[in-house]
Amino acid sequence: MQSSPQILKALENESIEILRETAAGFAKPVMLYSIGKDSSVLLHLARKAFYPAPIPFPLLHIDTTWKFKEMISFRDEIAAKYGLDLIVHTNQDGVKEGVTPFTRGISEYTRIMKTVGLRQALDKYGFDAAIGGSRRDEEKSRAKERIFSVREAGHRWNPREQRPELWRTYNTRLRPDQSMRVFPISDWTELDVWNYISLNEIPINPLYFAKERPVVWRGDQMLMVDDERFPLINGEVPENRLIRFRTLGCYPLTAAVESTATTISEVLEEVSEVKLSERATRLIDGDKEDSMEKKKTEGYF
Amino acid sequence: MATPKVKPVIRLLTCGSVDDGKSTLIGRLLVETDSIPHDTVATARSVRRGGSTIAAGEIDFSLLTDGLEAEREQGITIDVAYRSMTLLNGSRLIIADAPGHEQYTRNMAVAASRSDVALVLLDAARGVRPQTLRHLTICALMGVSRVAIVINKLDMFDYSKEKFAEISAQIAPAVARLNLNEHAIIPVSALVGDNVVFKGENMNWYTGPTLLEYIQNQDLAEDSMTSPHFGIQYISRVDTFRGLAGTLVNGKFNVGDEVVILPSKKRATISKMVTFDGELVTAGHEQTLNIVLEPEVDAARGDVLHLASNAKQPADRFTANIVWLGESDLIHSRSYILISGSTSTPAIVTTIKHKVNIESGEHDSARTLKMNEIGTIEIATDSPIALSNYSDSRETGNFILVDRATLNTVGAGMVVHALRRSENVTEQAYEIDAEKRAAQKGQVGKVLWFTGLSGSGKSTIANEVAKELYALGRHVYVLDGDNLRLGLNKDLGFAKEDRAENVRRVSEVAKLMMDAGLIVIVALVSPFRVDRDQARELFAKGKFIEVWVNTPAELCAQRDPKGLYKKAAAGDLPNMTGIGQEYEAPLSAEVKLDGTLELKVNTEIILEIAK
Fold first, then answer.
1. CB-based contact B339 A187, cutoff 8 Å
2. CA B270 to CA B571: how far, in whole Å?
3. Is residue B88 domain-resident?
4. What's the ipTM?
5. How many domains does chain B have?
6. CATH number of the domain at A5-193+290-297, please?
7. How many whole angstroms separate alpha carbon A178 and alpha carbon B117?
8. Where in chain A is the domain with CATH 3.40.50.620?
9. What is the pLDDT of residues B228-251, one digit of tens each?
10. Is B388 a catalytic residue?
C-alpha cells in the first residue's frame, strides 16, 4: 500500500512545525540519532525545517558499543556529509562493569546501556528537550504518548498524568526539574516512513537491504554474527544467508528477516505485504507484555 | 465553516461512556480492514485479562487498544490512544480512542480538539447517560464536523428496530439543542460486527450507512480559507538570510503580497517564500515555509502575518467557551499564560458568565469552574492578540491557558468573539480630538479615580472638588458608583465578577467623557486591584490618577452614611467590602488621602492636581 504524496506532505508539514516549535520553545534541545530509518527521516525533516539555516541543535547517539559495524560507519558518513554537530555518548560505567547483552538479562542490559546512558548524556549536557523518532503505531504505550511528552525528575514518564495537548497549540513550558521528550513523527506509520524515504531519496543504512550475511539461529530468530564477540555454541559455524533488517539496534538483540529486497521499491513492496509489527524483530520487547511502558517510565525513549 | 474538500488525513474520535464498547468497536474496525499487524492480533487471541468472558481463541478486541499497564489492570481507558488506518479512497484515518470515565473527560477533550469525525457510543441496554451528553456537548463545542451516534450492543436486544427507535428518541432533544454540524444515528453490534465495516444480515431494516461508510464520507466542514494566517514560530538566520519560519493556514500567500505584522501593524511585502524544495510563488493552507519580507521590518516569534487587505484587528478581550482541565479550580482574576499557536501572553479571566449543565444544556451561574466543567468566560490579555472566532477557524480561534506555578495546561479555550477592537470595528480618527476639545474648554482632560471603603468619604470629597472646579470655570463630571447603579449598571450585583464589570463600564464611560474634554471624577469602591489596573490600562500615561481615600474601617462603619455596615452586620449583605469581601488597597496610587483629615484639606490636595 502506498502512502499518497498528499498524506506524506501533510505529515511532513506537521513534523516540521513540531521541530520548529521545539527549537524555539526550549533553551537546549537535542535530537536523538539512532542511525535507523526513523532517525534518517527525522534528520531529513530537521534539515527541511530550518533550511537554509543549519539544524540549530546537536544530534546525540547513545552508543552501547554493540551496534552493527555498518551502523557506526554510516553514522560517521552522514555526520560528515551534512556537517552535523554529533555527540556520541557511551555509559562508561556499564562498559567497566562488563555489561553486555550476553552477561546480563536483556532488560538489565537495555536499562544500563541505553536508558541510563541516555539519562547520563541528557544530564551531562543539560538538554531540556530530546527529540526522538518514535511513532504511535510501533507499540501500545507509544500509541498513548503525547507529541510533547513531559518527563518528571529523573526523566520519568508518568502515563497517568499526561499534560493535555490540544489542537496544534503546544505548551513547551517546563518546571526546573522537568524535561521534555518530543516526537515529531508520532502520527507516521512504518509504511509512511518507507514511502517518504523512497519519495525523497533519503540515504538509509545498507543493513536495510538484502545481502548475504553470516547468521546463527536462536530459537526462531535469526541473528547476525557481526563480530568475534558473539558467543557461538559448541563449534557452531555461522551460515551465510540472504537477509536484511527491518529495524536496527544492538546486533545481538536484532533479528534479521530473509529477504531478496535490494532496492527501496523492493523493500516497500515487502513491508506492505508483511503483516507483523516491526518490533517483533526486536528481542528487547518480547520479555514482558508491558515492558515498553515500564522502560519509558524509567526514562527510556 | 464551509468549502468541503477532500482531506488527505482525517481524524476520528471515538468516545462514549465507559463500557459502551469503544475499544471493541475500534478493534473490529482495525482488524476487519486489515490494519493491525497479525502478531498483535495473535496476542489479543491468546492473552486474557481477569474477568474476561471472551472465549479462548476469539479476539479480545479491547486488548488491541488499551495501552497502559494501569488500563489493562483496571480494564478501563485512562488516556487517548492513537491508531492509523488507510481508507478505501486512500485517505489516512487517525483514530483517537478517548476514555469514557468522567474523571478523564479532559483527555476526551484532547482527542476532540483535532477530530473531524466522531463516533459517540451508546450502550442500548443503558441508554443515554451523562457521559454520552457530556461527550456530545464537547463534540459540538469543539467543532467536530460530523458526529455519528452509535447505538451499540443491539445484539442483546435481538437487533430490535424498536429498541433503536426508543434510544434514538431519547437522544433527540440533546441533538436538537447542541447545534452539531452534521450527525447520524447508526445501529451496530461491535461484538458481532453488524454495520461496523460490513452491513451484516441482522438489521436489514436499517438502510443508512455503516460506520466505515459514514467515516469515509469526505463532506467535512473546513475552516474558512479566505483569511490567510501565518504565525511566526522561529526566525531562521544564516549569513544575510533572515526568514520568518512558520505554517500558513486558512488561505494563500503570493510573492508580492502586502502583509501586516500583528500586533505591531507594520507593513511589508513578501519578497520570497523559501522552502527546502525550492522557492514558492504561491503558498497554500498548511504549507510550512520561510517568508522573507521587504523591507525586513522587525518581527518576532509569536507575531502573526495577515494580508494587509484582509488583516484582523488584534483584540485584548474575548468572550470564549472553555473546558477546564486543571486539577485546581479556575480562579477569576488570576493571571494565566494564554497560548495560541506560537503566540503567548499573560491573561486574566475577568468574568465567568456561566457554566453549562451538560445534562440539561442550561446555563448555570458559576463563580468558578472545576476540572472537566465547561463554561463561558470573558478573558483579558495583556497584549493584543489576533485570534479568530472559533466558529470561523479551529486553527486560529483556539487557545490554552497555562498555570503560572505548575506550568500545566489547565484550560482549553475557544473564542466566541472579541470584545473590543473587534474586526468589525475600526477606530475612526477624528480631526477634532480630545486635546482640542479640552483646549476649547481651557483645561486638560483627565480622570481622577477615587477608590476606598464605603463611607471613606469618596463621594463627599468628589462633590466638594467638583463644586470648586465649577466655580473656577472648569468642565467637570462626577461618576458616582451608587448613581450609576440606578441606571447604566442596574443589572449588576456585588459579586466579584459583577464588580469587575462595574469597573469596566465606568472606566469606559470615564474615558469617553475625558475624550470629550472633561475632567472626570470617579467615586467607586472598586475593591479589586486587577480591576483597577485594567481601568488604568485604558488611559495614556498621566491621564489616569488613582486616588486612595484611606479611612480606617472602624471609622467608615461608624459613619455608615447609607446604613450598609448595619445591614452587613445583620448578615444581609454578604459581599460588603471590608466584611464579606476583601478590599485590596492600592500598591502604587498616585494620591493617598488620609480620610480622617478635614474635608477642606483633602479637597485642596485634589484641586491642585485636577485644575
1. no
2. 65
3. yes
4. 0.88
5. 4
6. 3.40.50.620
7. 35
8. 5-193+290-297
9. 999 999 999 998 899 999 999 999
10. no
